[in-house]
């Protein structure tokens, strides 16, 4: 009795001739695809207009509608990427490539065919474009310049301090938004500059904090802050006291006649400090009823001196 052998697909594919046929088939298929992609095709492609160098106050409206259509001839290889993204980007400069009207930019498409050809590259042969003119609508927002103030938590190493004031690389920043919101803002604060044990000059970039503002943009969004750090030392000078706003019909005698003023100064200027650089006064107009002492205040000091402190807090007096 003859036994019929059962067909096994695994054994079939293990057959050498089948493997060779499959390999040749795949190679032929690849060559077919390459051949097709090497052919020239004519196709209409979408170009999304990306307007650059636009003023901060301008807000482009309905950006999704800013397309032009280019009828091109190109190899299949060049058109293949459009399967994954159905448009290419066309960069248009708002300063040189368009004319600005009251509420729209006018882009003369036909006049700028060379711009389109340059950005499409040699892989595309531009046949025609539509429309002839593209109108890009925009709205204008309110804007103004405001100063920047620094929020800081800076701790210096012992014997060091900031030599002068912190400075920014720009005097002001532009805020842009609705008129009602822009009018409320007089300055913009930075995010906190946090530094510890500082001994060297400071040069940092800090972002601007507009988290408390609604629908407001700021340009630029960060500033550079700098400050010179130097070695400081403490000095003490004895300064005579003057009385201001004393009534002509009142004569007083006060004690002491001088006070010691402690100050913190850049080591470079320490030897240049003189007592005459300071002035201490007691304002008689600050007296309250039954008060028998005056309060001394430093009303003059060199600009480079910091942390002035008067050791004597009260000046006793009697009326004569």
Account of the protein in words:
It is a single chain. This protein has 320 residues and is mainly β. The protein has three domains: 104 residues, Beta Complex (RNA Polymerase Alpha Subunit, Chain A, domain 2); 86 residues, Beta Complex (RNA Polymerase Alpha Subunit, Chain A, domain 2), CATH 2.170.120; 89 residues, RNA Polymerase Alpha Subunit, Chain A, domain 2. It is 14% helix and 49% strand. It contains five helices and 26 strands. The strands form six sheets. A seven-stranded mixed sheet has the order 12-18-16-14-9-13-17. β5 and β6 form a beta hairpin. It is elongated and about 115 Å long. 13% of the residues are buried.
Number of domains: 3
CATH-assigned fold name of the largest domain: RNA Polymerase Alpha Subunit, Chain A, domain 2
The count of strands amounts to 26
User: What is the top-level CATH class of the largest domain?
Assistant: Mainly Beta
What is the terminal-to-terminal distance?
150 Å
What is the assembly state of the chains in this entry?
single chain
Average of pLDDT: 86
Give the overall silhouette: elongated
Question: Largest beta sheet, briefly?
Answer: 7 strands, mixed
- The percent range for strand residues is over 45%
Individual helix count: 5
C-alpha Rg, in Å? 39 Å
Please identify, by name, the CATH architecture of the largest domain. Answer: Beta Complex
